[in-house]
């Protein structure tokens, strides 16, 4: 299902108390080796010259200031490449996407941020609705299909992640899995499901479900899954580890966690992705994106950074290094591409 309006995402920062309140806690042995995301999004980071959202932030005079909801481990090397190739000094504040959006809102016209590089477009949509983002040049917008950019031209998608159902390869064959995410509410899946309901990407999925299928249908799905006693995990990584170990048989995650695990642990890793077909909301594609603040002190440098994220080299970086889907046509995509899955 390709979501074509930013309104799909704008509610993503809202609290999903129903999703987070129920389900069994993961056994202590189920916290696998994979880390990477906080409950609300991606792990904060920080190196010399950079700060996390929890630390006092002091912008260096003349530096391009990037507020990044993308994890340093994922995009830090790409930002370093940008600095080396352009000679522009970038100062990065890493943090949770929703928290950074709130910070930008609180800072108002005094925000030192030039660019908001967000894990999801919900936060970008909220900031744009508040009038904080400038309209991007059409040539920048045209690098990305309309489905993955702001209809008002205020932010642009930079990479994509597909929602999938990870399954344990010893317990299940792909043809034993149901055709829709709604089928996992069947009592036959009781005690067999793992999920991370406080994770931002899961909340994005639920919000999209609410918008596309209606509040009642989304609530029914959440209540149906909860009735099946799912095991609660803190993030996608531990959910996948639990699936691979057989602690649960299926888990709702983003696609690229499997590819990272396969790269690190080999093809014997005990889980695979199941991509739901025919526009099922369980195969929602979420995009990370970027926008430029109206109050940016360095608008030209900010524009160069956004354009850099959409350049072929950076798009190939997302495909090769983070196992995400590039937004620009003509880039070699990782296996399991949603483009070939539809």
Features:
342 residues, disordered C terminus, 12-stranded mixed β-sheet, globular, alpha/beta, disordered N terminus, 12 helices
Please tell me about this protein's structure.
- The structure is a single chain.
- This protein is an alpha/beta fold and 342 residues long.
- Helix content is 34%, strand content 16%.
- It contains twelve helices and twelve strands.
- Strands 1, 2, 3, 4, 5, 6, 7, 8, 9, 10, 11 and 12 form a twelve-stranded mixed beta sheet that branches.
- Helix 4 (97-107) runs parallel beside helix 5 (121-129) and helix 7 (200-213) packs across helix 8 (215-227).
- The protein is globular.
- The termini are close together.
Secondary structure layout:
Blueprint: H1 7-10, H2 17-21, E1 24-25, E2 51-52, E3 64-68, H3 72-86, E4 90-94, H4 97-107, E5 115-118, H5 121-129, H6 138-141, E6 156-168, E7 193-195, H7 200-213, H8 215-227, E8 231-232, H9 236-245, E9 250-254, H10 256-265, E10 271-274, E11 285-292, H11 299-310, H12 312-321, E12 325-326
Parallel strand pairs: 1-8, 2-4, 3-4, 3-5, 7-8, 7-9
Antiparallel strand pairs: 5-11, 6-9, 6-10, 6-11, 6-12
Helix pairs in contact: 4-5, 7-8
């Amino acid at each position: 299902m390709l979501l074509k309006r930013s309104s799909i995402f704008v509610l993503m920062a809202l609290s999903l108390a129903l999703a987070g309140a129920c389900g069994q806690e993961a056994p202590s042995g189920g916290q696998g080796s994979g880390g990477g995301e906080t409950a609300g999004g991606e792990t904060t980071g920080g190196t010399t010259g950079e700060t996390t959202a929890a630390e006092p932030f002091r912008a260096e005079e003349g530096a391009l200031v990037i507020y990044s909801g993308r994890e340093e481990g994922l995009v830090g090397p790409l930002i370093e490449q940008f600095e080396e190739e352009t000679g522009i000094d970038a100062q990065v504040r890493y943090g949770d996407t929703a928290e950074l959006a709130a910070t930008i809102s609180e800072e108002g016209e005094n925000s030192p941020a030039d660019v908001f590089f967000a894990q999801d477009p919900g936060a970008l949509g909220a900031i744009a609705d508040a009038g904080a983002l400038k309209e991007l040049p059409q040539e920048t917008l045209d690098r990305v299909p309309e489905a993955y950019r702001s209809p008002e031209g205020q932010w642009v998608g930079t990479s994509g992640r597909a929602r999938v159902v990870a399954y344990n390869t010893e317990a299940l064959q792909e043809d034993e899995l149901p055709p829709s995410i709604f089928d996992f509410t069947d009592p036959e899946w009781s005690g067999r499901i793992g999920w991370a309901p406080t994770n931002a990407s899961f909340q994005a999925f639920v919000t999209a479900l609410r918008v596309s299928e209606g509040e009642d249908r989304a609530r029914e799905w959440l209540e149906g899954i909860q009735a099946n006693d799912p095991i609660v995990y803190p993030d996608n990584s531990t959910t996948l580890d639990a699936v691979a170990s057989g602690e649960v048989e299926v888990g709702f995650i983003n696609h690229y966690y499997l590819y990272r695990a396969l790269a690190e642990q080999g093809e014997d890793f005990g889980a695979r992705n199941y991509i739901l077909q025919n526009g099922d909301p369980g195969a929602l594609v979420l995009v990370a994106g970027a926008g430029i603040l109206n109050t940016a002190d360095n608008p030209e440098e900010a524009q160069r950074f956004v354009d850099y994220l959409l350049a072929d080299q950076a798009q190939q970086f997302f495909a090769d290094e983070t196992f995400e889907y590039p937004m620009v046509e003509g880039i070699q995509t990782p296996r399991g591409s949603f483009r070939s899955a539809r």
